[in-house]
Amino acid sequence: MKAHEIDYVIHGEEMQYVSITLDQNEGVLAEAGSFMTMDQGIKMETIFGDGSAQDKGVLGKIFGAGKRLLTGESLFMTAFYNTHPERQDVSFASPYPGKIIALDLERFNGKFICQKDAFLCAAKGVSIGIEFSRKLGRGFFGGEGFIMQKLEGYGMAFVHAGGTTLKRELKPGERLRVDTGCIIGFDSTVDYDIEFVGGIKNAVFGGEGIFFATLTGPGTVYIQSLPFSRLAKRVWASAPRGGGKDKGEGSILGGLGDLLDGDNRF
Hints:
alpha+beta, Double-stranded beta-helix, six-stranded antiparallel β-sheet, 5 helices
């Protein structure tokens, strides 16, 4: 399906946002919560499902919404249309520090597979669904990389990633091992599987998890240096417990320092 042709500019360095310019009657789909600004000629509409099934009746809408529910996303998406004769702008922001990647789906033969929380927005006409795994091992051990989203259509789509991004062009048969959370996405020609790291010491004491993803070319792969789950885990581990101030942060005494300082009263 040919999507609406849109113009865009990505602004910023670490906390980026994308500004999309729409001609009259053009539209863009976005995840709930990513909207930043829009001109007065833009009409906002909440839609049920993935945006591609709006003209397929009730069952089509329910199926599209069900696919999104399986990926942990909202049942609803937001569509933005230009109802004004002049060109109008609407912008969407990345939810955490990192980069926004613009994808022309025509260059990926109309299909791109990405992490379930990577999608930001896309031109109206792009379908946002899920990529079912054909291998049982991925389902049980894939972790963050188990259920992937697929972006289908012929138009522009935008995904966001944490930290710094890496783009790799894999040759036929070339394999790349990646932490499952560090995958942003890849094109449909790349084969994706889950592999055991091997060795009891690696599994128990390695600290990197016991499974990683293997990506086999040919095709393009996008990698992120800081998955949001990793960032959230570090923040949670460093957060003070019990609502009090944590004097032990950065100290070899840790909780003992609080005890000696008199904060822990019996």
